[in-house]
Amino acid sequence: MPPVPVGRVLRHRGMTLLELMIAMTIMVMVVGALGFLAKGVEQGFEYIESHDTVTQHARVAMQRIETAVREATANSEFPGILVVPKDIASWSFPDTLVVWNPAIAQDDPDAVAADPDGLPQFDELVIYCPDATDPNELVEITLPKDVRTVPVATDPTTWNAEIRAIKRSPRRETVVLTDLVRSCTVEGVAVPQQRGAVRFVSRQCPSQEEFDAYTAGKLAWEDLTWVQGQTEFCQAWVRIELQLVPGKEVQQVVPFLGSAALYYVHKKP
Q1: Closest to 123 in 3D by CA, of 111, 109, 132, 133
Q2: The pLDDT of residue 6 is above 50
Q3: Is the dihedral of CA 156, 97, 77, 124 positive or negative?
Q4: How do residues 46-58 score in pLDDT, each as one tens digit?
């Protein structure tokens, strides 16, 4: 067999090495691209899974609050629901909702108000607010066996003092509705405070201002803004706003909105 020229062997080996280097480069690029795709798929899965979780938390919390409001007790003395804001410096945080619902408060579907024509008792109330020690938790608070009569709804100072005491009371019973509430720091105060991103907005129709105007003789009973034009037919409405965070890995804030209304009769005094 005749010998192969040395130059041809070197040229052949050089082409093989070049092709190998090109193939390895392409392989590295393909593996890198697959890695990026796999990372993207993993992040997408985590994002969807975390948002499914946070949506479920919001759905459960909203449904619990809305049911409590729709099935609440109300009368001419107390409109069934009451938003108690917390004032810090120049800021106001309407993050506490009080609902007069004996069935939920006493965990008894047959429970009724002790005085359906007067003011409720504290053990007939259900309170929704961020937890006093952990603002990332939205909690439901009840006060078993506290038969004291609540203050009138038009006394915000007393209500603020009562709510502050209730949130710290060792006798309270607490149910956590979600632990994914976004928290933020209140600046501009001596001691910065953490607050949960929960907000309640209530509306009464006719409004308390209209009832006051009627009492003062400035507005006729028939001229109050009655619901559906039916005299003595009232509505108490609340809007619920929650900001939840899916988790430590996904810090995007997800807002949720809900509302509920309660209808009742307000007898002419």
Answers
A1: 111
A2: no
A3: negative
A4: 555 557 788 899 9
